[in-house]
Design brief:
The complex is a heterodimer of chains A (430) and B (483).
Chain A: H1 3-27, H2 34-57, H3 65-83, H4 85-112, H5 116-119, H6 121-133, E1 143-148, E2 151-159, E3 162-167, H7 169-193, E4 197-199, E5 202-204, H8 211-226, H9 230-248, H10 252-271, H11 273-283, H12 294-306, H13 329-362, H14 366-390, H15 408-429
Antiparallel strand pairs in A: 1-2, 2-3, 4-5
Helix pairs in contact in A: 1-2, 1-3, 2-3, 2-4, 3-4, 3-13, 4-15, 6-7, 7-9, 7-14, 7-15, 8-9, 8-10, 9-10, 9-14, 10-11, 12-13, 13-14, 13-15, 14-15
Chain B: H1 2-29, H2 31-36, H3 41-48, E1 55-56, E2 62-68, E3 76-79, H4 87-90, E4 93-94, E5 98-99, H5 101-105, H6 107-110, H7 118-125, E6 134-137, H8 141-151, E7 156-161, E8 168-174, H9 188-195, H10 217-226, E9 235-237, E10 241-243, E11 250-252, E12 264-266, H11 267-273, H12 276-286, H13 288-298, H14 317-320, H15 324-331, H16 341-352, E13 356-358, E14 363-367, E15 373-376, E16 381-384, H17 388-404, E17 416-426, E18 429-440, E19 445-452, H18 464-481
Parallel strand pairs in B: 1-6
Antiparallel strand pairs in B: 1-2, 2-3, 4-5, 6-14, 7-8, 7-19, 9-12, 10-11, 13-16, 14-15, 17-18, 18-19
Helix pairs in contact in B: 8-18, 10-12, 10-13, 10-17, 11-17, 12-15
The chains are: A mainly alpha (430), B alpha+beta (483).
Chain lengths: 430, 483
Amino acid sequence: MSRNAEAALLGGAAVLAALGVSIVRAAGGNSPDAQTALTFLVVALAFGALHLGFRQWAPNASPYLLPLSALITAVGLVEIFRLDPRAASLQRWWLLIAACLGLATLAVIGRSGTDMLLRYRYLFLSAAVLAFLLPLLPTQWPLGGVEVNGSRLWLQLRLFDTTLVRFQPGELAKLLLVAFLASYLASRHTALTAMTRRVGPLTIPEPRQLFPLAAAWAVSLVVLVYQRDLGASLLLLAVFAAMLYAATGRAAYPVVGGGLFLAGAVIAARTFDHVQRRFDAWLRPWDDLADTGYQIGQSLFAMGSGSLTGSGLGLGRPDFIPSATTDFVFAAVAEETGLAGSLAVVAAYALLLAVGFGIALRARDPYRKLLATGLTAVMAIQAILIIGGVVRLLPLTGIALPFMSYGGSSLVANVIAIVVLARISHEVAT
Amino acid sequence: MNGPIRRLAFVLLAMLGLIVIDLTYVQVIAGPRYRDDLRNPRLAASRSSTERGPIVTREGVVVAESTADPDAPQTFSRSYPEGPLYAHAVGYTSLLFGNAALESEYARDLSSDRDLTISGIIDALLGREQGAQGIRLTLSHSVQQAAREALDGQTGAVVAIEPSTGEVLGLYSSPSFDPAELLGESPAGGDALTEDPSLPLLNRAIDQILAPGSAFKVVTAAAALETGAANPDTLYPDPLELALPGSTSVIRNADRGPCADGVEVALATAFRRSCNTVFGQIGMDVGPEAIGATADAFGFNAEIPFDLPVASSVFPAASLIGDPPATAQSAIGQRDVQATPLQMAMVAASIANDGVLMRPYLVSEWFDRDLNILSQAGPVELRRAVSPGTAAVLADLMEDAVANGTGRAAQIPGVVVGGKTGTAQVPGRAPHAWFVGFAASEERSIAVAVVVENGGAAGEGATGGSVAAPMARAVMQAWLAGA
């Protein structure tokens, strides 16, 4: 597949988004208006710019990355527009910003190659830790943290009593941590693989080599406790475990990491009411539908009402689902497009996952392999956690669905991840 | 490190596979269960976002209407301004308890939310009205009010029919209920109605069959006249009690005396005085097949074509063959004979209509938003129940019963009223009081059936003549006065 085919598919995604917006308008008895044109233009402009950036700085990159992310973004934009046109217009701005930042990233790594990221390993680590801690700044400061729905994840810029912009630095911190871990593990993976110490029946590496694992576990628990963000801590731990496993090939890391997290989660469930309620809602949603089971119950009602072919865009009642534009956007899509649409979305994520890991497999050195693995895992695990939560396969964790949920921070982070993946795949081919 | 990466990819893909399985379960296998779950707010939304046309009486009194929510013009709420008065005829459309009565039977016409059926598509292509239709009832507001006042909370029912057209002028069952109780989001009100031992949700006018007692003598007399076995002057023995062959039981009159002089008595006199001894004898003389054939002609033992489902009234002719004691008791409306008030009103209506039974109907007109009439229902002749001669004789007998006999309480000054009382014995409880009859002024005519279960307020001492006949008079007067 060529770059030209990629351009054609991106045009298709823009048409799909515009068509979706028109259908939503038609379902409400309205004819297409500026929203249709704006949606088409913004999707075409953002992904068109990224496409041109690819031609310039990563001409041999995988041509599947952009069309898949554009497809998911288009579906998300349509559903967000259907639920909240005002949010959709903000999301369009964020898409343009994300494309700009993605282009900038591509331009930087495109000139000097992905290797340059190796140089800033510890800068990334400090930046990540800082980013996780930023929301803890006092709210009244011009740059301060905000608590939304019980989780302190937001950073807002306020000048003269007006909130200019809100951002979740944690979304970017995930990428920074992946970048740090990739370079750290790439240089230490032989040491971590060598089991030199014997503790009873277990052989373990040098304790100092285990420090990053312990640090990762600590960070995820800090996030869980101080920011009350079950989803982010679960995601971080899963990504660490996945990258450690990829680096060492030792299943002990994910098993021990998972065990530690489970232990932490059980303790947290006993200690923190909000975690306990998540588990109650997962295991017994119908017992207390009015309260703890409300979100998941509404999600299941919505998806069940959608059935095989859905209510049709604009014709369902996804407005009954709480947080329908963010955490539960998948349930809203599933109601209005039915199993046909929801499986298509899952298939798009599966393809993106396959493409990402394919890039990792073909990458030319351990660092690039681990970076590609980490970036793909971040997106894939996020999608699995939130879709799994929405369909009640997993406990519900408030986390954004990559490219689809309303929210600028997540969109920016995911576009940057795609851009880095593209550059890695370009460097394989050259 | 490609091995671990590949395995990692497979693990994550497998999890997406699990999601696909779970998603298929949630959306398709368990989907209908979630969709129809009473707690799914989409149910309420889908009903309330559907406008339903109004239902009005023949005078135009609104008995059901949808009003748009002022804050959300696309959502509607259904209300029943007359409350319990039309509850059994009109029914309700409730989120928790579904649709009932006309709201259910005519849901498709009333609702603006049509299915895409072939006829719906054809209508759309032809530019025919697709919106919510209103329906006009044959029911008369004044007759309904009179029925409610007459029954006054006692358990029973009133059915009134225009004899020449079959229009149902009154259909009231008591105790009634307020449909508003069933409309809320809490099931408490409806559950209370469902569990109420007085069965307020039961439509006693059409859903329940009771022994008609002596009111059934109209049918027995009709059979005797139709077969030529008797005329009004035919004389019958007048015993103190009628011995039933092959049985130790006897039939007595209500006052335990003879019908007339204790020697012999004419059919007309026996009808006027409602003598059980004589009609038991007539029943045995005419035989169950003939009475059964006449009962069938009036509508017994078959489904009555009506806008609402009606319980079939019963005269079990086949099981009475060769059983004279049972035949005698059935001839006076006891034992296995059971009828709905609607059926008994149809008997009276066909006699008032020269023997022709009209199809009873409740809905006369469908109209659109601008009150243009879209379609109409008219009189339909079901069949000739009895010959014009028999009908005339029966009418005379019934008029005599009101003028000089058991039905005197139904008299209306200046109006010819005919009728037959019934006091159906109920083992261990007070009798059911019945009156079936008709009245006609120069402009208007009406046939009614009234039943008061277990004597109503009068209790053990209740008779059809004392309890039901005055109610019938009030209902008939309400219609005749409206001209």
